[in-house]
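Dear colleague,

Thank you for sharing your sequence with our group. We've completed the structure prediction you requested, and as agreed, I am returning the results in plain text so they can be pasted directly into your records. Please verify that the sequence below matches your submission; if there's any discrepancy, let me know and we will rerun it promptly.
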Amino acid sequence: MTMPTTDNPEWYPFQHGLEISVPETAKLLEMGKPIDEFVLIDVREPNELQIASIDGAVAIPMGEIPSRINELDVDEETIIAVLCRSGRRSLDVTLYLHRQGLTGARSVAGGILWWSDRLDPSLRKY
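Please find the predicted structure tokens below.
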């Protein structure tokens, strides 16, 4: 599985094998791949989703990941893009998913803040 690592600010210490860029995530989402190939999981809380959300993302709050990840038809080859506000929680979830054998998991670098900056300024920042 090849994961492009471009499109992040030059100053950002991109973590190869753990992160995916906002533009690459959006591209995969737009391609409409089946869930066994790609899924975008938003791990923010319901109140955060009311402020800003991405169409096509599956909402599973961070604390519910261990009990709900089996709801998805994913395996170690599935690209699982994990989104939060800034990329911190999503990186924690990505590391957890890797420990569970889901090595296709990637944290969306910069989270929804960078999504707003890079792709959709109509998304409200908080």
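Summary note from our side: The chain has a mean pLDDT of 91.

Kind regards,
the structure core
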